Amino acid sequence: MNFAVLQFPASNCDQDAIHALRCLGHSARYVWHKENSLGDAHAVIVPGGFSYGDYLRCGAIARFSPVMQAVKQFADHGGLVLGICNGFQVLTEAGLLPGALIRNRDLQFHCEHIFLKTVTGHSPFTNKIPAGKRLKIPIAHGEGCYFADEDTLARLNANHQILWQYCDADGNLTDTANPNGSLLNIAGICSETRNVAGLMPHPERASELLLSSDDGKWIFESIFAALQERPAAQTAN
Amino acid sequence: MKVKIVITPKKAVLDPQGKAVRNALAQMGYTGVKDVRVGKFLEIEWDGTDAESARRQLDEAAHKFLSNPVIEDYKLEIE
Q: Which of A220, B6, B26, B43 is least surrounded by Cβ atoms within 10 Å, i.e. has the fewest?
């Protein structure tokens, strides 16, 4: 499978994403934010970083980059898009995912491993995650607190759009296990059409045991499996 | 023409910065401070004299880009 990993000015997790995908046996290439096409990509990763210095708001400027038009069209046609950290922020700013990411409630930048509970296996991003498995994945963010109004939260729940929640090592959704104050301990969600997802933790930094956890690979394996199941080779073209 | 835009977090949104500032003010002895919300101030130098046109365009910009309507409100003022 071919992956497109976007690069905005000051994205800095693009190389890790490319590395993780290639380690897992797939083809991945960089797509610069000024490009108008995603080429023959089967899926898109919007990586982490501090695009445009987080000026104005995180992801607020990146969402207007030319490449985001191609991403929007790709998503509208059912293409798989995964936003990681700043990528999640870009996707919410672009309106491809609901809600917003705001400053961590304790105003601290959190750089640590957390545990994720996978709420539903019914998505192209969670279908291969072993049931009940807590994913140990690192976070590194100062503005990862997920916010959405009550109606949106109700809708996310009803539609099973909440994919991952922060939990403790035993899978409990406690306040202590919530590093940033996200409502409902939300770490990641998907769109109503389920082909676009975003999460604040970094699965690309937990895809090799060398980095103390390879739990992140399950998210990528889910995407690979979902792509295999598609009837014809659907590419960005 | 100068256009001033003030962007503030919506009431329902957690504002940890505001809380931190309020606590600091209390510690400094300003006991009259009940609440603080921290926002943004933009000053735009607009090329033109048509206030209505400026307001219409910057209102759109404020809604689409300068503020995030999910978490922020804005007020626009033309001098």
A: B43
User: Which amino acid makes up residue B55?
Assistant: R
**A233 located within any domain:** no
Could A64 and B66 be called an inter-chain contact, meaning their C-beta atoms sit closer than 8 Å? no
Q: Smallest CA–CA separation between B30 and chain A, in Å?
A: 22
Cα–Cα dist B70/B63, whole Å: 10
Instruction: Report the residue from B13, B17, B68 with minimal CB separation from A107.
Output: B17
B2-54 confidence digits (pLDDT tens): 999 999 999 999 999 999 999 999 999 999 999 999 999 999 999 999 999 99
CA distance B74 to B79: 16
**Active-site positions of A?**
85, 202, 204
Range(s) of the domain holding residue B34: 2-78
Kindly report the CATH number assigned to the domain that includes residue A163.
3.40.50.880
Q: Could you give the number of structural domains in chain A?
A: 1
Contact A147 B14 (CB under 8 A): yes
Helix axes A217-228, A14-23, angle to 10 degrees: 60
What is the domain range of residue A133? 2-228
Query: What is the CATH number for B52?
Result: 3.30.1280.10
Rounded Cα distance between A50 and A86, Å, is 7
The ipTM (two decimal places) reads 0.91
Q: How far apart, in whole angstroms, are the C-alpha atoms of residue A218 and residue A237?
A: 27
